[in-house]
Please model this.
Amino acid sequence: MGTRLLALAPWLLLLLLQLAGASHVVHRSLEAEQAPSSVPASIVSPLLRTGYHFQPPMNWINGPLYYKGWYHLFYQYNPKGAVWGNIVWAHSVSQDLINWIALEPAIKPDIPSDQYGCWSGSATILPDGTPAILYTGIDRPNINYQVQNIAFPKNASDPLLREWVKPAYNPVATPEPGMNATQFRDPTTAWYADGHWRMLVGGLKGARRGLAYLYRSRDFKTWVRAKHPLHSALTGMWECPDFFPLQAPGLQAGLDTSVPSSKYVLKNSLDLTRYDYYTVGIYNKVTERYVPDNPAGDYHRLRYDYGNFYASKTFFDPVKHRRILLGWANESDSVTYDKAKGWAGIHAIPRKVWLDPSGKQLLQWPIEELETLRGKSVSVSDKVVKPGEHFQVTGLGTYQADVEVSLEVSGLEKAEALDPAFGDDAERLCGAKGADVRGGVVFGLWVLASAGLEEKTAVFFRVFKPAGHGAKPVVLMCTDPTKSSLSPDLYKPTFAGFVDTDISSGKISLRSLIDRSVVESFGAGGKTCILSRVYPSMAIGDKAHLYVFNNGEADIKISHLKAWEMKKPLMNGA
Model:
């Protein structure tokens, strides 16, 4: 997948390596350069550039993999400047998914089938341990005519995989008559079963049917399209599909993509909404069909993240036997602001994913390596916050922090009834019932808040009465950045998702990763996740504060809170 790319930014690292800049601004109302010519000083402040979120000047994530002691991350980027075109695969490596070193681009347009751009793809480890990259190439000028190519390491003994070669038999898959050649991209990691390799390619049939084309190969060289897609739905174009097996419910270990399982995840990035959706279901390798467990799942689907999170990829980590999710978040300011800053776009913190004990959804949690960045800490226990009050967490810097809190509400009977007019539209409900709407049961954190609360970003829960006899209370998790900044011309949407948890005991947990201009939160142990971009003008650096707030009618107890200052990685693209 390709997209708009923005300004370049140097990265002086170990060995004097350099990265260059790019971004993807998906909020169409902000894509035109209509921002004022005078850019507020706070917008270009280096204190808004993330400290511990990996911030290469990057775009869609391509083919993460682990090889000979190194994690490899590829991402799309334009080495020639802040314009669309010349797409290559930039390349960074790490030994812990936290500290990254930039290498030279891995894949560049240099064969006929990718001469106009190297777009998204995935990596597969072959049985002999050799990695292979399947990726989308653009082979015609002035039209995004998409074909699928393959590349192999030039020297498989090089653990850094610095050079790649493309065999003469490329492309390995091309659009057939009747297929939309401009909506045919993003091959997945391949899996092997019964003598055949299989891969998926995202596509669009007609105006609305998104689908995952299925291709098979005996030799990883000649690929043949199956008669029917693995799955499809009337949702619009499916970008960046991902398909992987799961362990039994509740087991946190991951599985290699080729290991058969009774449960699978099929994910796609929906071009129409710029969100990542997934379903849990069953894969029948005889019929080559995937069937979601929830019959309505294709249209009321789960999301990895209910905030600013798109074009993600997972990969199996053979060292720690886990499946890791990598995603990215664009900026939510204007193009003009991004150019003035000289940087745009970040990675979310890598997340471990596994199947919830219910078997209905995934759980997600920041990888354990992140904890190596924790520094000075403070703890709070058994603190009651009365209705309408807030409590400040002091004793550490909170503009770059990791906060874990367990909360308990004592009066769930005071919860509001859920207006059926909102249906299952969590975002609309949060927009109407933002953090400052008092009453009922509503509580959470104010992060990146100014001393006078002129600026604050709320991450909170609102609880509603059970919908019927025997039902459990309904829990809504929201991030409300509407008061996050006094700077003009910012896109400040509320993000929200329902949390499938039983709060009848009154207990719930929240973790928020606060990093200057990003707030990444995990509700109820990772059942619901929300990432939001914010750009404070006052709550910057040591002027940023952290509070627990209660805008409801029942007491809230901080059972336990622990917050850590977070150090910057030695190498992270900053």
Residues 330 and 345 are 4 Å apart (CA to CA). The chain has three helices and 36 strands. The radius of gyration is 23 Å. The first strand starts at residue 61 and ends at 67.
